[in-house]
Amino acid sequence: xxxxxxxxxxxxxxxxxxxxxxxxxxxxxxxxxxxxxxxxxxxxxxxxxxxxxxxxxxxxxxxxxxxxxxxxxxxxxxxxxxxxxxxxxxxxx
Length: 93
Fold this sequence. Notes:
Elements: H1 8-19, H2 25-32, H3 36-46, H4 49-61, E1 85-86, E2 89-90
Antiparallel strand pairs: 1-2
InterPro entries: CHP03643 (IPR019882)
Pfam families: DUF2805
């Protein structure tokens, strides 16, 4: 999927997933077809520069954003208590 083809709702969801500590870049690639570098470029374009800097610092120090750095046994994209996500809203328990 090309960045120009993304809807506003999809961009919002990608930004939300990128901010989540437990969501790896592979999950974003799986759902939207954007590689890590493309996600970083999208975040730089869509966020204020100060917010982008905070996010980049967070990503660099977060072991769960990169599957290769993850602890053995974490093989899911979301919390096992979380129900399915639809239309960018998390279902209530």
